[in-house]
Write a structure and sequence with these properties.
alpha/beta, 3-stranded parallel beta sheet, 3-stranded antiparallel beta sheet, 4 helices, globular
Length: about 180
C-alpha cells in the first residue's frame, strides 16, 4: 500500500538505551562507549534487576530510599546503593544498583545518562490489564485496573512455573475476571 500524503519516516532521534543486567555487575563503560554515538542526546540505562520497588509519588521521601527497599526484603549489598527513578507518572522506582557501575556511568556520560526499570513501563495506562515482561532471569508483572496501578512486582524467575505462580496468585488476590488482556 502506498502512502498518499505525509511521511512514513520517523524523525531521527539521538537517544540510546543500554540494559544493565543483575544490578550492573556485568557492565563495562568501555563496551558502552563503543555502542553510543558521540552525538547521542540521552543515554538511557535500563536496570534489569528484581532488586527494585515502586513508591507512590505522594508518599515518596528521598531520604527514605534505602528503607523502601528494606521493607520489601531487599537489603543493600556492600557494593550497592539505592537510586530513585522518577518515571514521570504516579510512582517512583527505587532500585539497588552496583555503586561502581553507577559511578562509572555518571562520570562517563554525565547528565546525558538517565535510568529506568521495566517496573515503570506502563504500556496501557488507561486500560485494565496485566502486563508481564520477562527479562534475563527477572520477571516484571504490573496489574492496572481502569483507574489505578494495583500491583507491580519484580522477581527472579528461574522457569515458566515461577511466572505462572505469581500470575495465579495475583488473579486470585485481586479477583481479576477472565478476559482481561
Amino acid at each position: 500500500m502506498r502512502q498518499v500524503t505525509g511521511s512514513n519516516q520517523q524523525p531521527q532521534r539521538n537517544d540510546v538505551s543500554i540494559r544493565l543486567n543483575s544490578g550492573g555487575h556485568s557492565f563495562s563503560v568501555d563496551t558502552a562507549m563503543r555502542q553510543v554515538p558521540r552525538d547521542a542526546a540521552t543515554i538511557e540505562f535500563v536496570i534489569d534487576t528484581p532488586r527494585a520497588t515502586l513508591v507512590a509519588r505522594e508518599h515518596f521521601a528521598a531520604e527514605a530510599v534505602e528503607r523502601y527497599l528494606a521493607v520489601c526484603g531487599i537489603h543493600l549489598l556492600d557494593d550497592e546503593m539505592p537510586i530513585a527513578i522518577d518515571g514521570g507518572a504516579d510512582t517512583i522506582a527505587v532500585v539497588a544498583i552496583c555503586r561502581t557501575a553507577y559511578d562509572s556511568i555518571c562520570a562517563t556520560f554525565g547528565e546525558r545518562a538517565t535510568f529506568t526499570t521495566p517496573l515503570l513501563t506502563d504500556t496501557h495506562p488507561t486500560e485494565q490489564c496485566i502486563t508481564i515482561h520477562v527479562g534475563d532471569g527477572t520477571c516484571y508483572i504490573r496489574y492496572r485496573s481502569a483507574d489505578e496501578l494495583r500491583f507491580a512486582e519484580a522477581f527472579t524467575a528461574t522457569c515458566d512455573d515461577d511466572v505462572l505462580y505469581y500470575v495465579a496468585r495475583l488473579v486470585e488476590a485481586e479477583s481479576i475476571p477472565a478476559g482481561i488482556p
